[in-house]
From TrEMBL:
It comes from Streptomyces griseoviridis. PANTHER family: D,D-DIPEPTIDE TRANSPORT ATP-BINDING PROTEIN DDPF-RELATED, TRANSPORT ATP-BINDING PROTEIN. The keyword rRNA-binding does not apply. This is Dipeptide ABC transporter ATP-binding protein. InterPro entries: AAA+_ATPase (IPR003593), ABC_transp_ATP-bind (IPR050319), ABC_transporter-like_ATP-bd (IPR003439), ABC_transporter-like_CS (IPR017871), Oligopep_ABC_C (IPR013563), P-loop_NTPase (IPR027417). Residues 24-275 form the ABC transporter domain. The lineage of its organism: Bacteria, Bacillati, Actinomycetota, Actinomycetes, Kitasatosporales. Belongs to the ABC transporter superfamily.
């Protein structure tokens, strides 16, 4: 008699995260870049309000997606959090410690725990250094000697990111774009970080490679328990990867919530517009799909002189006088799940039911997700 096959319980991605312990907390974060003008004496005539009062929390081991159109302040947010840039106002706390104005010396232990992966895998790797040197660089700078030596650790890291450990002595130009981004991931992992800020880590890659790198990052996040702030300009890329998602517009977060709330019950008109911008294909034929495509009128206004009240009002089809005079607070409005916050006076109805998994935002990317699991792109010859 054959015994019943016992399969492990499926991972329930919709289950609330156990004991959400804050790792990074950002409150009222602002970055205003001065605009100089005048002749012959140049003086400050205004400010680019790149980030203007941002509140967010990333929990231990969580993947948090930050999404918005180009120029809305995503990279600036990433640089402020990793302390590559000084904020104009606000606070950044890491593991309960205020690091907003920490000195270089005070920051040293935190620096190794927060790492960054950059958008461009071509310019972010030194072309004159071997892969071994690049990946062991952070260990060298921080005087870290892992058991077994740095070279052994680099080989291990190459294996984790799906590259051949024997390629230790090769140079970046010998690798493809996807492989270079894997090298960037290995470098970010070298100091065993607790948080990785990934600034559009797949935008510069061919669509055929994007899903492979996203899968690698997902593996790293789940298996090594590393929290991610994953920055992307489109909602399709973070859909599988992020447990919570924040949508940014002109320096502010306009909606934030768990993944299903953002993808299937969005309340902010801008989130609706972003979701409708790419063709939707419903996997569940019985479910009401076919979101109407919303074309946003006009360009993103200048962050030097943003609209009064709600910053989205110049492109919003629901805008009224109130929207021009009163800034809508980012709050949990009626009908939202706990933790789903929306900044809008006249939110959309929460009509679209379902699971984020069932909504395919970009058929090309989704098709790749099926074939790309765990298979690294072919190593360079
Ligand atoms: N160093 C800088 N000096 C002046 N303006 C800047 C600087 N860096 C970014 N900006 C401006 O800040 C705004 C936000 O930029 P950024 O954070 O790069 O946006 P995103 O990453 O979302 O595309 C843009 O208007 C950009 O031109
Ligand atoms: S507050 Fe007004 S302008 Fe802003 S998104 Fe809501 S309806 Fe549109
Ligand atoms: Mg950017």
């Amino acid at each position: 008699m054959t015994e019943d096959l016992v399969l492990p319980a499926p991972r329930d991605d919709d289950a609330p995260a156990p004991a959400a312990e804050p790792l990074l907390t950002v409150a009222g974060l602002k970055k205003h870049f001065p605009v100089k003008g005048g002749f012959p004496i140049r003086r400050t005539v205004g400010a680019v309000q790149a980030v203007d009062g941002l509140d967010l929390t990333v929990h231990v081991g969580e993947s948090f997606g930050l999404v918005g159109e180009s120029g809305c302040g995503k990279s600036t947010t990433g640089r402020l959090i990793t302390r590559l840039m000084e904020p104009t106002a606000g606070t950044i706390s890491y593991r309960g410690q205020d690091i907003t104005h920490a000195s270089r010396r005070q920051l040293a232990p935190v620096r190794s725990e927060i790492q960054m992966i950059f958008q461009d895998p071509y310019s972010s790797l030194n072309p004159r250094q071997t892969v071994g040197k690049i990946i062991s660089g952070p260990m060298e700078i921080n005087g870290i000697n892992p058991p077994g030596g740095r070279e052994t650790r680099v080989r291990e890291l190459l294996e984790i990111v799906g590259l051949n450990p024997e390629h230790y002595n090769r140079f970046p130009h010998e690798f493809s774009g996807g492989q270079r981004q894997r090298i960037g991931v290995a470098r970010a992992l070298a100091l065993e970080p607790k948080l990785i800020v990934a600034d559009e880590p797949v935008s510069a890659l061919d669509v055929s490679i994007q899903a492979q790198v996203v899968n690698l990052l997902q593996k790293v996040q789940r298996e090594l328990g590393i929290a991610f702030l994953f920055i992307a300009h489109d909602l399709a890329v973070v859909r599988h990867f992020s447990q919570r998602v924040a949508v940014m517009y002109l320096g502010k977060i306009i909606e934030v919530g768990d993944r299903d709330s953002i993808y299937t019950r969005p309340r902010h008109p801008y989130t609706h517009a972003l979701l409708s911008a790419v063709p939707e294909v419903s996997l569940d034929e019985n479910r009401a799909g076919g979101r109407e495509r919303i074309r946003l009128a006009g360009d993103v206004p200048s962050p030097i002189n943003p609209p009064t009240g709600c910053r989205f009002r110049t492109r919003c089809w629901k805008a009224t006088e109130k929207c021009a005079t009163e800034e809508p607070p980012l709050v949990q409005i009626s009908g939202n799940r706990e933790g789903h916050l929306t900044a809008c006076h006249f939110p959309e109805e929460p009509t679209i039911e379902g699971r984020a998994e069932d909504i395919v935002l970009d058929p090309a990317l989704a098709a790749l997700e099926d074939v790309a699991t765990e298979r690294p792109d072919d190593p360079a010859k």
